[in-house]
Batch of 2 targets.
Target 1
Amino acid sequence: MTQRQFATIAARAGIAQDTAHEAVTPPLYLTTTYRLKALGQAGPYDYSRSNNPTRDLLAEALAELEGGSKAIVTNTGMSACVLALQLLTPEDTLVIPHDCYGGSYRLFTNLAERKRSFKLEIINFQQPDWQQRIQAIKPAMIWLETPSNPLLQITDIKAACVLAKQLSALVVVDNTFLSPLLQQPLALGADIVVHSTTKYINGHSDVVAGALICADQTLGDELKWWANCLGITGGAFDAYLTLRGLRTLLPRMQQHQRNAEQVVAYLQQQPLVSKVYYPGLVDHPGHAIARQQQQGFGAMLSFDLAVEPAQLPVFLDALQCFTLAQSLGGIESLICHPGSMTHASMSAEAQQVAGIGPTLLRLSVGIEAIDDLLADLDAAFQQLAASVNTNASDAADHKPGTTAASPSSDHADSAECRLNPALTALW
Ligand SMILES: Cc1ncc(COP(=O)(O)O)c(C=O)c1O
């Protein structure tokens, strides 16, 4: 798809189609129900859980942008994942990557272990034997998330789809990190794409919602039936806002990416950063595949700080332009500590296996002025460097028997507070 076509589809979705009053911007239909002309004469809409004109406009635009036959707009990204899983039975095996979004990991593992909804196999797609392992497992569904969250690892979608076809398995790709502008998994052979539209598609951090797009119409019809049956279709107002956000996806994404490239360049020369994870880097293990299957490297990146975990709050507290918060893909820059935030639902062992270290930080680079973003990072690194030096000289001066609390232990306490124990039950 050329960018002009993409921009036109996104900008003009539903524009100047109103037959009632010739409204240019499509109206928002908040109605829950629809009048029948007479008994037995229902129109195309009857009840908004099943169908809604505003939601349908968004679904049509998403189906076209992803190159699918049918899109179903859901009330969250997680419910789009739940919807795809309706295709599995307890005899089926689902293969998932070892480093997917923590909420997806929680859903897969709990459905498999506590509900016996399907059998589950967790694969490291970065190991050279991943194809042999999948061949031996003979799954009914392969779940991909590429680039992965939070380590931006790349999986070869085309290779996975070729293998899946041989095994008659379905391939689902979570395309949240890139959006259909930068990656179209259906064109690479996938059967289903899921999105947390909460992220780049809406792009303004003011709607939690999701979508599922099917290559095949029949599969799409079946999943639309399930979405209505389960009651997980999206709300009309959310669809209206998401459609408004979608219109500017292309210019937003361009600015996100320009900024991300410069942030990556800055982090690479920063001595307190031990590793930068970004598929646009030529030494990233998935760079060549990303170049082939993506139309850009996106604006998500992660990095390891080369300090003790207790020093994390020094860095995080100093930031002004990067807000410490979950989520991603909004116009504003966010920073997150995956280990205690987005991926807290993974056990310490699962985090370690996935490579999520204690000082890993993830950035969702926004569209602010790049000079402000870089100055913000620079100021925070300066404070971190000062704190590291102070701790080092304190340690050198330390005399046996001294009991005064060190700055790092204060910071450890404040790190604990950030984890908000009240939310633990949700992890
Ligand atoms: C890659 C990915 N998939 C799915 C989800 C779940 O989406 P939602 O929070 O809209 O339910 C998220 C949320 O962060 C995500 O990052």
Target 2
Amino acid sequence: MRLAVISDTHGNATAFEAVVRDIKNQSPDAIVFLGDIVMRGPQPGECIKLVKSLQPLSVIRGNYDNRFTRFPKPGWTPSNYKQELVLRAFEYDCERISKEEQVWLANLPTELSCNFEEVPTEMYHASPNSLVDIVYPWATLDELDTLHKNEQTKLVLYGHVHHAHVRQGRGRLVVNCGSIGLPFDGDNRASYAIVDFNKKDIAVQLRRVSYDIEKAIIRAKECNMPDIDAFEYALRRARYPYDSVKRSHSAT
Ligand SMILES: [Fe+2]
């Protein structure tokens, strides 16, 4: 059985379209999406439509999808640069996705557990307890242990950190599929994972897919997306953009 594991498109439909083409060549039996379909990129509605067109086994809610459950709270105002960016991205997305799509995002499940062949598997956006916990590729074994609930679990799949990796934890494999729309691991190609199951055996491919980054930036400009400089920085360098862009702003 072959599973495609995809995550973190963040409104970058140009990258997502390239990954969809690559997935079709891989002919998976099932697809799971691990959250953060929208926000930070120019085409949130297109990304929602692409996700649905793939008919995934499950779509899990990410922390940015979760904004549509409760954000911004009455009386809330941004208190730092990152929060200002988030608010502008949220307002931009609210103008581009329907109320029905916002309700759909807000009601996505936050976890999925199932057996693939004979492999008990748990799937999350960030962790079993949170949509925002960060477990990096260089996590300790104790930190990797926070990513499962059931001791029988042999495979954990998660997204959120935008940094693809495979780790052997205590008694289970831990796989992060990376980000399609905004990788932060220094490789600016879109990232996802293919997992092959054969009874109890697991084989993982971390796939990287080149796409037209210039086209994605032009789309953002055509849409008058706010904070294009941060988006452009992230796409070109595949690095977390917000600190660097702010520094360059204050320097000029
Ligand atoms: Fe994300």
